[in-house]
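To the team - 6-O-phosphono-beta-D-fructofuranose complex, inputs and output below.
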Amino acid sequence: MINTNAFQVLSQLAPEYKKTHLKTLFSDGNPRFDEFHIHIPGMLYDFSKQKVDHKIIDNLLQMADEMQLSEWIEKLFKGEKINTSEGRAAWHTALRDIENPLPEVSEQWTKMETIVNELHNRQLRGYEGSPITDVVNIGVGGSDLGPLMVTHALEMQKHPKAPHLHFVSTLDARQLEQLLVELNPATTIFVVASKSFTTIDTLSLADTAKFWIQQSTDCPRALQHHFIGISANPAKMTEWGIAENLQLNFWDWVGGRYSMWSSIGLTIALELGMEGFKSLLAGAYAMDTHFRTAPFKENIPVMVGLIGVWNTNFLDLSGQAILPYDSRLKYFASYLEQLEMESNGKHVRRNGEKTSYRTCPILWGEVGPNAQHAFYQLLHQGTERVMADFILFIHGQTKNERGQFHHNLNIANCLAQSRAMMVGQDSEDPNKVYPGDQVSNTILLNEVDAYQLGMLVALYEHKVFVQSVMWDINPFDQWGVELGKKIALDILNRIQTCDSEGLDSSTVGILKTIWKD
Ligand code: F6P
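Output:
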């Protein structure tokens, strides 16, 4: 990135834009919105509250050309092995190509549909022959967050025959233990969701669930009825004891954090029905098509990504707040934390050299109105300069009078906050001074439904990809999580043998305090 001509130009321009207050860009009734928004069917992207003008945008687009963004997009869509450190493709777009699905993808849709129909029609039965009523997804990271986020968001569109869905992910088993008290083993099925089928968090919880089923019955084949497996590692599923007819697959070319579009989305399909799941895929496919074909200047993921790079690398903003104004998107920020930070939280370029520039900002978020009463203070009067994404829907949850009133409140607050962050406020009392000048995006969608949610998630996936191309990093591996896993295994062995020799004094001190207790 830093060797491009556009980078040099943007670096020279940046100090002037840093100094210019955002509100002055809107002064004298400047109709910035007209020039700095993109509207496609179902989605409006307003970037008028960003410190950009045509000069900046033209240079960002030139930088994208110099970094060969078009070529990279084609490699992504063609399933080339662009995850070079693992020698794999990153072909999540193939999972939602509803017009030309790969045969193996269609085959999994058929298997998913069979399981969905059997569960909806109470044909899948437990060891006593009673219909399964409860489904518990056991998984972590990409095998949890996508299905959790989507099923929470779309609960209001639940299929009338959907079983009760539960999600457990925490290693300490608290969630699972609490659930097991309420559930009946004879009518509960567990979905063990793990791409690798080696993740200790998931397998230890699955073993606890297995023990619970085994304790409840003498039936020797009980386990065959109570576990569905979803993995890219079928041999491991079989070895663990998942019946072949209850195994769903996906492939090493699907990254964990990009996997909710695959059979990992089974719980989504259980909640919405297969049609609803396909609608989610269709929304993502619409965004894929837009991303692949729209000119960069009118391309929402490209512009969101490039403006994020401008903010991070030229205006030196270090945080990214995600602020959805709808409580149904409660888990959206958690989902994006993995998507963005596990993808682009890297400091090594594709050629192995260390980057000399910043990459992924720290991303966090919360449902907007709740966050207003929590961390917005920092956004308005703190010392950190951050960028914010406001996500808003035209239609609210309910159409009755009170519902519409609440939705109007929601809209008013969203617009008020992005405006307050932009204009700020002067005052004689220093406590009441708001510097303003905080940049933001607003993304406006029609309503919270499967199609629109598919579009929204795919937008962020592609934004991440655009930024990875600018930063010349591989967004599809996650080597940074391995060291902690290795050390945890070593410490677990030491805990079991009461051996702390050779460890640092902090770890030893804490272990010895625990052992004394
Ligand atoms: O440890 C990180 C990670 O590998 C994520 O990338 C992944 O989503 C999560 O763990 C769960 O992995 P798996 O689906 O293989 O259990």
